[in-house]
TrEMBL record, chains A, B:
Pfam families: Hexose_dehydrat. Transmembrane segments: none annotated. GO terms for molecular function: lyase activity. This is Oxidase EvaA. Residues 18-218, 231-425 form the dTDP-4-dehydro-6-deoxy-alpha-D-glucopyranose 2,3-dehydratase domain. It comes from the Bacteria. Gene3D superfamilies: EvaA sugar 2,3-dehydratase subunit. Signal peptide: none annotated. It comes from Myceligenerans xiligouense.
Amino acid sequence: MSVGSSPATARGRQAPASVLTWLARYRADHGLQVRRTLLDGMPGWHFDDLGNLVHQTGRFFSVRGLETFDVDSRQVIESGPILLQRDVGVLGIITRRIGGVVHYLMQAKIEPGNPGQVQVSPTVQATRSNYDRAHGGGATAYLDWFLPTPSGQVKADSLQGEHSAVFFHKHNRNMIVSVDQDVPETESHRWLTRTELRDCMWQDHLLNMDSRCVLAHLPTLPVGPSRHTDAEVQSWLTSLRATDMVEARLVGLDQVPYLGDRGVIQASADFRVVGVQVSGGNREVVGWSQPLVEYTTTREEILLAAEYRGEPHLLIQARREAGSRAGFEAYPSVTHVGRDSPLSEELQELALSSQAEIVYSTLHSEEGGRFLGANSRYVIARVPDSVMERPLPAGYMWVTPAQAQMLTMGSYTVSVQMRTMLAVLTTGCVVL
Amino acid sequence: MSVGSSPATARGRQAPASVLTWLARYRADHGLQVRRTLLDGMPGWHFDDLGNLVHQTGRFFSVRGLETFDVDSRQVIESGPILLQRDVGVLGIITRRIGGVVHYLMQAKIEPGNPGQVQVSPTVQATRSNYDRAHGGGATAYLDWFLPTPSGQVKADSLQGEHSAVFFHKHNRNMIVSVDQDVPETESHRWLTRTELRDCMWQDHLLNMDSRCVLAHLPTLPVGPSRHTDAEVQSWLTSLRATDMVEARLVGLDQVPYLGDRGVIQASADFRVVGVQVSGGNREVVGWSQPLVEYTTTREEILLAAEYRGEPHLLIQARREAGSRAGFEAYPSVTHVGRDSPLSEELQELALSSQAEIVYSTLHSEEGGRFLGANSRYVIARVPDSVMERPLPAGYMWVTPAQAQMLTMGSYTVSVQMRTMLAVLTTGCVVL
């Protein structure tokens, strides 16, 4: 089942030509050569005694095994390969009022796994390996606006998990810092307005995952009457976390089942780990090999929206993926990782039925430094308000956009998928 | 160094006689016999192959070993005994407007480790072992107001850690549920007003740990101008969590050093694990033996308060104890577990100097089902506003009381010690 083509062009919404030209020029100057290679033939990487795929420095990320088990019975529930990256990255956007209009300093960034290679990323997108220069490369530009302490007014700073079905305990800081000083543009960094970001959001594969995650925190969502109080929304997530009797432990990759061999690790029906060999461009070092996560299919993420007493509400769900650090996190109404639930199929059918209006449908990809052409179609569907009266399982809740964003006050609470949906709203791309 | 006697009587503030009479009568009818015994002679408990002290059912809590290590170097930082209790408990208070005045349904509860045995606890204080009846005892009274879903309006529901220096990943739900229905009092349960709770708060060892933790969430704190924005306060905790490169892993108790023998486990300079044999009373089952945590000294917790532009602010610090589930949590300005820092001593001296005014000083004890006479003196000291201008290390921050409470929006964020301080403020016991 597919939602079909994007409604972007139908509505005359498309990315600003100036942004597309900037990116095209950047790619022409810095494009990479990316070739697939086998995992067990990558320089600098090897399989250790436990079968784990690791880098010789012990840094970047490694491929391990993970077992989830029931806390009471100690029985293993499921096991499989997972990626471990202990580095906490900084995803930061500088914002500044220029000529009375708020601007955001965005970066043209080339990554080997990006469809189209170049995408718009935050001002800074750096893991500790990057800024400690584990690559042996140069310092990360603009990082001192964020670390060790923000040089400006912090507008958002939240610690959120990243793809807990693929990574174990991986999390990043999502920062927005407002500055007064003049920060000059460079070849790689440009000041964009929120209107430009809004229009970029209509375009497939343009705003990268990290941009979407940070933009989700823009304090632009109206606070209106809500079906549930803020305390009830918090209680909903607390309840699921408190009754969660599943824990996870890392084991050797050799201790868990996977298809394929050491050349390509088929981790599950959902993703595999493949190797690539990269050369060219102005990345921190010239030429390297690395593993990347490849999805087995284009995914579909759907957010249902309806009105309660005239106020827009979103149907969110909470899920506990194996690698999550603090248990349940918020996801869109329908998410690929939860597609097997009966309700998921029902909601998907509803979103695609004649009862619903698709107000957003765009392809976005996961971060190209760790994912290879991993595409998801993000859909927002307005459904009849009466849908809100249907009884729902405990894992679902109707909340206002501001309440969904409020959950980011806690650490490890809002998934990448849900933050992407929020960014569609915070940038004003879709006004519900 | 000691803060001396409580200022309670000096101010004429003391617990209501009706509450004291109720508790005295309850103790007379249900008092326990508690005798010390050796850990290795307790029926139902044994040391397993790894040296861990466990219950034969595998439930309640066990004594394990814990190692913390540096994520990069994998070097062990420290190791020692720790308690493991995977049960997530429910600490819940029902509240109801009676005759126009908000009342709270509180419980007279006997625990073997309580100084004075009986203290005022929440309406419900139950671990999953309790309400699954692992004791073989009766159902927990009033639990169905909270589980599986609250039967009323949720006012607070947050998941918070518990003594991360003693327990590994232990956490509880802190719930307040407002109801309209008539809920009759019983011998063990009484409706108290906030004024009565306020006066109880002046008295040593009267409101138990769980009551204090839940009352910290009362939505009674005024929201006023603050020195730092809410985003800056969130950023402060995020920053510490994001740069935390320490992780912890459970190991066998035999793998970590401790003094004493299997009769009494001297876990650290701070606490030991001892055995008690209990009989009598109306607890779920009659007669049992269990381990309890005993502090080696009466502790001192101090919260500094000052005004910023006429608005009260509190000096809080963030600490990462070995057993914390999500890293750094908020603590008072001076906390026993962090007493070794140079600033800690300086702040303590300041609080006790003639420059400061002690506005609160009361002894409270930790939960008597797991702690044996574990006493801490809680002190709130008003210091000159100029103190706020002193430069502080990254782990400290001046926040308003409402901002400190706001941190409970996230899971595992505010320590028992800091929640006790907040309860002094939310009950109106101290008005800054």
